[in-house]
Amino acid sequence: MGSANVGLVYGRWGHLPDRSFRLLAYMALISMDEDDPPVFWQGRESLSMALGRMTPPAPAKGDTSERANQFKKARTADFEAVKSALRALFQEDVVRVAKECGPGSPTVYSLHLDAGTGKAEPVQRGRLSLSTGKAEPVQRGRLSLPPTTKEPKDFNPNPNPTQVTNSPAPVDNSAEGIEFGYAQAVEILQALPDLGGQYMTRAADIDGGLQAQIIAAAKLCISERNAS
User: Are 21 and 96 found together in one domain?
Assistant: First the structure.
């Protein structure tokens, strides 16, 4: 069977629409790995099943009963679904007609899994950009901050322990106040004269990505202010 062919489908054709991908994976499974090119020959009913549609049998010729009419309508809908899913495979040139159907003989399709434009496209994981509508990768590491002059070691960014410098919103300095979310952490760092650069430097080695580092830096800021 076509286990190696199925591997090619998953490795190179994952960008296909869902139904077309399911159809191609099924055709590859039925094909033989040693064939060049591999072929699929099992007919439209089999392809319909690959799409989750159980096509009823063709009614007898001349049968005009209500049941026969329902079967005809279901078969037409199922075969249209197969035709639609095949369209993308033809456009990608991953499936071609090797032999047209004939009386009692289904269409034979050849699979060209290593041809055309098929390739495993890299997926960028990260936040969804509201401006572009695309996933933008999230950089792991330090918060990007503008260059600033170094402050003396005894510099206190906020001499008033109950108020963040230049921030109109008070900060909870209680023990419970140290447990907060990412949005509050960003506000605290942005309110500091150097945008929290000294705290981000100290939190850069914390595991969990940039969000975790920003929260840790804000916690450092509050805990030091509480200790002063």
Answer: yes
Q: What is the DSSP string of 81-138?
A: HHHHHHHHHHHTTSEEEEE--BTTB--EEEE-TTSTT--------EEEPTTT-SEEEP
| Tally of domains within the chain | 2
- Per the CB < 8 A criterion, the answer to whether 33 and 61 are in contact is no
Q: For 121-172, write each residue's pLDDT tens digit.
A: 433 334 434 344 444 444 444 444 444 444 445 545 455 544 444 443 444 4
Q: Rounded to whole angstroms, how far apart are CA atoms 174 and 65?
A: 79
| Residue 104 shares a structural domain with residue 153 | no
Of the candidates 35, 39, 50, the residue with the CA atom closest to the CA atom of residue 108: 39
First to last CA, the chain: 72
Tens of pLDDT, residues 25-38:
999 998 998 888 99
The answer to whether position 131 is within a domain reads: no
In a domain, 35, yes or no: yes
Same domain, 93 and 158: no
Peptide bond into 37 cis (omega under 30): yes
- pTM to 2 decimals? 0.50
Give the range of the structural domain holding residue 22, as residue numbers without chain letter.
Answer: 3-111
